[in-house]
């Protein structure tokens, strides 16, 4: 064997051994923890779901719900209580700021889609918003019937009321508008809470308001698209070595299952590494658009075996009995 061929074979052997070592070191089968159980994040409590095909930023999702099999309205105390009673481990809810500077729990920045009101949340006072019917616009048959109309009057609540209603539960606040002043308003309220309560509350949303919350209250677990992108690109570059970038620490990742497969050590070792970095990994169904959740028992077929991270769901009542019979 000539010297050139011998050198080529040695190089190839080193490459193969190195590659095998990298994959072994990042193998969930060898290193991941499969002894846990999934934790459930209840998205807006128990919500009315809707088909995702054709949905865009301007779609009124209340006008295309599935035929209701429950009477709960998202982001209301009743739907939140029902989610916890069904087995939720954490509650996510949406936040807007009113004309009188109150933090209210509502998804849309405008009122026309879901309620009998009109205009922006930002242009109405809390008292005005309390008079609206939150179920006014929900229909499953193109407007022929409105099964939830009249059932949402007076149900709008504030962030303070949600925090008080569930004093010992994990909460995740979604700042719906990418406005720095809304981050300032939320940070001012959160700063009034005792440290032990603040430890149970997370924040996510637009880059601008989340950055304000993180700068004012670095102890709060917070994330945004910018933070998640910084974390995941850094991990893709260096995660083969087991290194977890600083951007991944004390935060959370809303990760579509389809893209999680790209991560070193996916799924179990990746979740373990993030857990050691004090970061939650929340698995979102499919590609992750428009709040797709694990909402039906059949959706769980795509959940990684042995998954002990978080699952995003709009229907804790359907999913919890399957996971915890």
From TrEMBL:
<dbReference type="Pfam" id="PF03009">
    <property type="entry name" value="GDPD"/>
</dbReference>
<dbReference type="InterPro" id="IPR030395">
    <property type="entry name" value="GP_PDE_dom"/>
</dbReference>
<dbReference type="GO" id="GO:0006629">
    <property type="term" value="P:lipid metabolic process"/>
</dbReference>
<keyword id="KW-0732">Signal</keyword>
<feature type="signal peptide">
    <location>
        <begin position="1"/>
        <end position="31"/>
    </location>
</feature>
<dbReference type="GO" id="GO:0008081">
    <property type="term" value="F:phosphoric diester hydrolase activity"/>
</dbReference>
<feature type="domain" description="GP-PDE">
    <location>
        <begin position="38"/>
        <end position="325"/>
    </location>
</feature>
<protein>
    <submittedName>
        <fullName>Glycerophosphoryl diester phosphodiesterase</fullName>
    </submittedName>
</protein>
<dbReference type="InterPro" id="IPR017946">
    <property type="entry name" value="PLC-like_Pdiesterase_TIM-brl"/>
</dbReference>
């Amino acid at each position: 064997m000539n010297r050139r061929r011998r050198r080529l074979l040695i190089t190839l052997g080193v490459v193969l051994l190195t590659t095998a070592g990298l994959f072994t070191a990042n193998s969930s089968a060898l290193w991941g923890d499969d002894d846990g159980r999934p934790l459930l994040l209840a998205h807006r409590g128990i919500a009315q779901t809707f088909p995702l095909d054709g949905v865009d930023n301007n779609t009124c999702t209340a006008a295309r719900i599935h035929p209701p099999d429950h009477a709960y309205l998202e982001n209301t105390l009743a739907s939140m209580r029902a989610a916890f009673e069904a087995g939720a481990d954490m509650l996510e809810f949406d936040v807007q700021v009113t004309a009188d500077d109150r933090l209210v729990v509502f998804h849309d920045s405008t009122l026309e889609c879901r309620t009998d009101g009109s205009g922006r949340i930002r242009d109405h006072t809390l008292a005005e918003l309390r008079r609206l019917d939150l179920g006014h616009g929900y229909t499953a048959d193109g407007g022929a019937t409105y099964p939830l109309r009249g059932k949402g009057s007076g149900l709008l609540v504030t962030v303070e009321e949600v925090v008080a209603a569930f004093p010992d539960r994990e909460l995740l606040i979604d700042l719906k508008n990418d406005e720095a002043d809304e981050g300032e308003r939320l940070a001012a309220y959160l700063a009034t809470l005792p440290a032990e309560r603040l430890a149970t509350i997370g924040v996510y949303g637009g880059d601008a308001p989340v950055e304000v919350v993180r700068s004012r209250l670095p102890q709060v677990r917070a994330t945004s698209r910018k933070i998640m992108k910084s974390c995941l690109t850094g991990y893709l570059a260096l995660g083969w070595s087991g290194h977890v970038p600083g951007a991944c620490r004390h935060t959370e990742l809303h990760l579509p299952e389809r893209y999680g497969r790209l991560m070193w050590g996916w799924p179990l070792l990746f979740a373990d590494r993030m857990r050691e970095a004090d970061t939650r990994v929340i698995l979102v169904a499919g590609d992750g658009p428009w709040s797709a959740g694990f909402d039906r028992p059949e959706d769980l077929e795509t959940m990684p075996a042995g998954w002990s991270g978080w699952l995003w769901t709009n229907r804790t009542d359907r999913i919890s009995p399957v996971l915890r019979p």
